[in-house]
Amino acid sequence: MSGGARRAEAERSIIKQYRKDIWSRFTQAVNKYELIRPGDRIAVCISGGKDSFLMAKLFQELYAHGERNFEAVYLSMDPGYNEENRQRICDNAELLGIDLTVFHSSIFDIVGEDETSPCYPCARMRRGALYSKAKEMGCNKISLGHHYDDVIETILMGMLYGGQIQTMMPKLHSVNFPGMELIRPMYLIREESIKKWASHNDLEFIGCACRLTEAMASHNPSVDSKRAEIKGLIKKLHEMNGYTEANIFKSVENVNLSTIIAYKKDGVIHHFLDDYDSKTNGGVQE
Fold first, then answer.
1. Tell me: the pLDDT tens digits for 118-131?
2. Of 16, 72, 65, nearest in space to 46 by CA
3. Is 157 helix (H, G, I), strand (E, B) or coil?
4. CB 3.0–4.6 Å: which of 81, 99, 182, 245 could bond 85 by disulfide?
5. How far apart are CA 109 and CA 90, in angstroms?
6. What Å distances lie between residue 239 and 207, 230, 235, CA to CA?
7. What pTM was computed for the model?
8. CATH code at 154?
9. Which residues contact 261 (CB under 8 A, 6 or more apart)?
10. Domains identified in the chain, total number
11. Helices of type H across the chain
12. CA–CA gap between residue 76 and residue 87 (Å, rounded)
């Protein structure tokens, strides 16, 4: 199959075979969370993996089949990938008909000094670099390819490893880049659906292209990310209860503050004892 035919099939499959599991969930998130507004110029950020490349195709399809009330540019940052991974990103962009702007940074070299936990500072620096480049290109939003499974994994990670309840939000205003916003339009799409789309179209994308974690793993084969541990836990829980993932996701939409010991809002901690005595009537019944 020629490159043009493969591109056409990849686009067609989004609307046909995967309409329910991918396209409809994408448009549902865009509408439900009001992710796109008239006049937006969005930097669709492509890391090189299956999630971000599908996101790019979804934006192209939205523009082709929906209201053309926004602009999208396709942006990829090379934080220090090896040549093979960088070339794979460029080849896939060409194959899928994505006009990709690639810019270089030295983030891997900088965070490489922290051999114990480079992932957190790397993620922060990568996002800052994307915001900066997107703003330079006249964009007011960046779009990231986090999906439904990323959301529920983040919820559990916060509880089990951070001792807090929080979620990955579908959109956020940037604190350090005023006027900029982050959106996650794949918020409702399951990772398994993304894998099936890639397999259906015989597409191969890079996985984790971080040469730092590769080096760490080569010295210590037991190195495994906390997110991988959480993935395994969720899989086990699903075997006992098929509604596990949906219930985790819904849990942060159904928070009953009357049954919460304390919560934090805008940096201020609110405790149930603050107004406990003033609520002698109408409290929770035991």
1. 555 566 677 888 99
2. 72
3. helix
4. 81
5. 22
6. 26, 14, 7
7. 0.87
8. 3.40.50.620
9. 271, 272
10. 1
11. 3-15, 24-32, 50-65, 83-95, 107-111, 119-136, 148-162, 191-200, 211-219, 226-240, 244-251
12. 12
Q: Who contacts 121 (Cβ-Cβ below 8 Å, separation ≥6)? A: 111, 114
Q: State how far the Cα of 253 lies from the Cα of 247, in Å rounded to an integer.
A: 10
Give how far Cα 4 sits from Cα of 10, 67, 97, 197, Å: 10, 25, 9, 17
Closest CA to 145 of 196, 83, 75: 75
Nearest to 45 by CA among 89, 10, 95, 84: 89
Angstrom distance (rounded) from CA 107 to CA 171? 25
- Report the interhelical angle of 148-162 vs 226-240 (nearest 10°): 100
Within 10 angstroms of residue 70's Cβ, the number of other Cβ atoms is: 19
pLDDT in tens, 53-100: 999 999 999 999 877 899 999 999 988 888 898 899 999 999 999 999
Could you list the residue range(s) of the whole structural domain that residue 46 is in? 3-219
Burial class (CB in 10 A: 0-12, 13-18, 19+), 96: buried
276 found inside a domain: no
